[in-house]
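thought: fold this chain, then report.
action: predict
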Amino acid sequence: MKYIKIVFFIFLTLTYTACTKLDEKFRSDVVNASNLTATQLLTSAYNSLNTVQTGDWWHLQEHTSDELIGPTRGPDWDDNGNWRALHLHTWTADQSQVNGAFSALLTGQYNASVVLQPEFKATTQQAAEARFIRAFTIFAVLDSYDQVPYREDLNDFKKLPVTMKSTEAADFVITELNAIISDLPDGPNYIANKDAAKVLLMKVYLNKAVYANRSTPSFDNGDMQQVITLADQIINSGKYSIGAKDYFNNFAPDNDIISKENIFTLLNQPGGTLGGNVRGTWFQIAHYNMNPGGWNGFATLSDFYNKFDATDERRGIDYRYVGALPNPAHEPNVGFFVGQRYDETTGAALKDRQGAPLVFTPEVSIIETGPDLERTGIRVNKYPYDYATNNDQKNNDWAVFRYADVLLMKAEAILRSGGSEAEARNIVNSIRTARGVANFSTLTLANLLDERGRELYWEGWRRQDLIRFGKYLELWQEKPSDDPRNLIFPIPNNQLAVNPNLVQNPGYEQ
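observation:
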């Protein structure tokens, strides 16, 4: 569409900043685009969130954590050292993912604001959905960069956007969500809804102390009570549940029908107007000789894998779902892939391209060389592969907010506010029982963080969790050092060049 192309051009080159007559032409084109509707523009705003669906924002949250490593495998996956830099915490203000996530999130903010312009006559619900999307992008930029350019008035691009920082941005998100929550629908879960707004509010309140002081947050009991109250509203609605053997239902091709936990998802429909590259979750980890063949890239670390009990459903199972291949070897087709891999149609043992048995090993290095470089690293596949469709937009909707996260956040808020450890432990144990593992006898912040890792791995929340629990700067496998500046990412240099209201974050100044 003509309008969307204009939005992208303006945003990627100017990012809300002052410009010349170009902004006047832009505004004129928007006003005269009488064939556009608020519905079309809202679709564009929803699609802007696909950066959390294995896009640049997702890479920043997971590749910089102890859950994921992107090793260079001989000549493959070098990419100018970008993946190594994320794992090693040696990124710069010119890092492609650092810049890409910032631009994508601000584009989402902008696209949502366009829906609200009076000439498009958005309904009350459409306006509330757009404001939710905008609030989500502001939250994500705050969480990662601590500075959020914000422009509500789209009439005069000669005026610079304001820059919100730290708790100011958090308070803005809270105010916005409270203002719109009554205008949001009750569902479905693939559009902004009342419960999605409540979960986003929970995440802001839970992390608000971090935004005030990233290195030594002091959690306010009032904020924690807000988390508990919002969680209770969702729990008491009776709409969600955690069932035994239901874990991978949340990520299946028909998860819009069978999931009992998903609160807010990104809709993926082959051939539809909404969707992102959920197929990339498979391609990024699958070996060339698997079915289908992938790009043989990312893996997890053995220390993280070893946090799982052998009976934990989340570690991996032969998941029977609509469209699944027969898998005669009954190896895990979801979860963590370690050891010999088999053809899921014939059951034959697979080999790598050199003819050696395709055995994924726990050992993995940031730079892989030698004959086993195709096989190192435990692979992770959380979204059961949708064999029935043949494009990037598989039918698996991307899970953004889940009920299990609501329960874990409530348990954390209880602990942090000095509440009943037994109550918090019972909440966590209700999840563990459903996943097939033994109950905790005591709940601490340490084992709660591990439980969040087991439950929410590769969903895009690990960096945030590690920072909130004070573990992000610790050393882990293949990360030998760190720097306190890395608690936030640098402002991309190309953004600093066009917006004088932005300043480089501490430690990144040249």
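thought: worth noting. The first strand starts at residue 72 and ends at 73.
final: tokens above.
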